[in-house]
Specification:
Length: about 400
């Protein structure tokens, strides 16, 4: 039978697994199976066969790619982004350079409220047109599946608008898209926090659920935003409408975000720049994925999450970008892998596992993404010629991707 696509002479086929029933934790994260001198067969949208070139049966293919000298990876899974937004905030970047803190910028009408004001002023179609290039951008650096949050609307109408745009990106690009309702991202200037929480719980959540716009619910659990108690109350309401929790936790302070995540059965707790031994202990034995967003730590000059301590405690660990206009204006997953190795002392193997299998777990996509496995979606990328997989994080800032295949189709 003729193959749709055959990739041959692959220097190393990375992240090859028969199955991926669960996340990787502790010592498992250092194990990264690679088949050398390999082939990969794709039919339709699925991976149908792989192995060593010496095992390749005689087969015709509609298209063949010679990957001599190159590695083939499963696409990155970016489990935390805010790529639907109206405008960048480079003026705040300059304010930060001059010494303003994140909290000071927010107090002066910047930050999330700045993004909300800009987003509320444009139409749904215009928001899509502005956001689409960012989806294309992340595809070109190897991302094949992505989570997209709301949270810059802060009104019922505009939160729905954001989520509709995120869903449209999933329809009109080859990305696999999961959506998250983050109405509790900040409090609008013209409302009390109590009134806004009531709006989120009584109007926003039912409206989002009525249109089936969100897979998950998130809250910015942080001093000056939403407390642990408020976070738990909001996400429990979301759970009543079928949304799984994932929490912005411990970015600026030890804010109770990890505790809120564990208490509510969140699939992930994200950021963790300010996580302590107590939170690490609380995460043990749970199904909640600790997730680092190293681009935000770098951009805001925050401590990087203690990856070594978390992994050495036997926990799983994931890496995502946090691509957003205020604190992490990059969706470059290879760069996040570099940060993980350089600043968090993760090995290349651990960082690749953290950005493929473990982020796929954090988006309920393990059955279809995160590894080279027969039957999974054929979303992979071919690198430029590289001497080893360690060259990917080593050559930080460069794009290692030569060719992108999503859902079985060559897209770049």
């Amino acid at each position: 039978m003729t193959a749709d696509l055959l990739i041959v002479n692959i220097k190393g086929l990375v992240q090859v697994r028969k199955s991926t029933p669960h996340f990787l934790a502790g010592l498992e994260m250092s194990q990264l199976p690679i088949v050398e001198n390999a082939f990969l067969r794709i039919d339709g949208e699925k991976i149908t066969a792989f192995g060593k070139m010496t095992e390749l049966p005689v087969v015709e293919a509609r298209e063949t790619i010679d990957a001599t000298g190159s590695y083939v990876f499963p696409s990155f899974v970016d489990s935390h982004t805010h790529i639907v937004f109206a405008a960048y905030r480079e003026e705040e970047f300059v304010m930060k350079i001059k010494g303003a803190t994140y909290e000071q910028i927010a107090a002066n009408g910047g930050g999330i409220l700045n993004s909300a004001k800009k987003l509320q002023a444009i139409s749904e179609d215009e928001l899509f047109e502005r956001s689409l290039p960012r989806a294309i951008e992340i595809i070109k650096t190897g991302t094949g599946a992505v989570e997209i949050k709301s949270g810059y609307g802060l009104t019922v109408k505009d939160e729905l608008k954001m989520l509709r745009v995120a869903k449209r990106i999933g329809r009109e690009t080859p990305l696999a898209v999961k959506t998250t309702f983050l109405g509790a991202h900040a409090v609008p200037k013209d409302m009390s926090k109590a009134d806004y929480i009531k709006l989120v719980m009584e109007e926003m959540i039912p409206a989002v659920a009525a249109e089936r716009l969100a897979d998950y619910i998130d809250v910015f659990c942080e001093q000056g935003f939403f407390s642990q108690e408020e976070t738990e109350k909001i996400v429990e309401r979301g759970k009543e409408f079928g949304m799984r929790p994932r929490i912005h936790a411990n970015q600026l302070h030890r804010s109770g975000g990890v505790q809120a995540g564990v208490n509510t059965g969140a699939i992930s707790v994200d950021h963790l720049e300010n996580i302590g031994d107590e939170e690490i202990e609380i995460l043990k034995g749970t199904s909640t994925m600790p997730t680092a967003l190293p681009g935000a730590a770098f951009f805001l000059n925050l401590p990087f999450p203690p990856a070594r301590k978390i992994i050495d405690a036997g926990l799983p660990f994931a890496i995502a970008t946090d691509y957003n206009p205020g604190s992490a204006p990059s969706g470059n997953m290879p760069l996040m892998v570099s940060y993980a190795c350089i600043k968090m002392k993760m090995t290349p193997e651990e960082a690749i596992n953290a950005s493929t299998i473990n982020t796929a777990y954090a988006l309920d996509l393990l059955d279809s993404h995160g590894s080279i496995s027969v039957g999974k979606i054929a979303s992979v990328f071919i690198t430029k010629p590289m001497p080893s997989i360690a060259f990917l994080p080593y050559s930080f800032g460069s794009n290692p991707v030569a060719k992108v295949i999503l859902k079985g189709k060559i897209v770049f």
